[in-house]
Amino acid sequence: MAEYDLVCDSCSQTCDPLDAVVTWTADGDSESDFALTHAAHAPTSGPSRIEARRLIWPNEFLAFVNARFGKRIADPEPLRAIVAALAPFVMRHDNAAEVDGMRAASFGAIPGVKPGTENGK
Hints:
Elements: E1 6-7, E2 14-15, E3 20-27, E4 30-38, E5 48-51, H1 52-55, H2 58-68, E6 72-73, H3 77-91, H4 96-106
Parallel strand pairs: 4-6
Antiparallel strand pairs: 1-2, 3-4, 3-5
């Protein structure tokens, strides 16, 4: 496993940022059960979620972290681990995902998905 690999909390395998999601449970002003998983391993309903490909954009990363301030988090360690795992992707000066994301966002598209299609085919 490389130094900057993301690791799925569900299967313990490496996870590409474009195929990962962060999920958590929100209940009023408290949050819990933070997890970074492959999209296929994430619950489809119930918890809050955000795609990791968005969290490696600097502004989205900061917005996610700032939104956690003021929340009661019973077990902050999983959140700390997720923030630490994503930080190297955010801080890279040549963050290709951010560049692709901004380019795609200017067209209202998703990076890597052919315009006019939903699944990239």
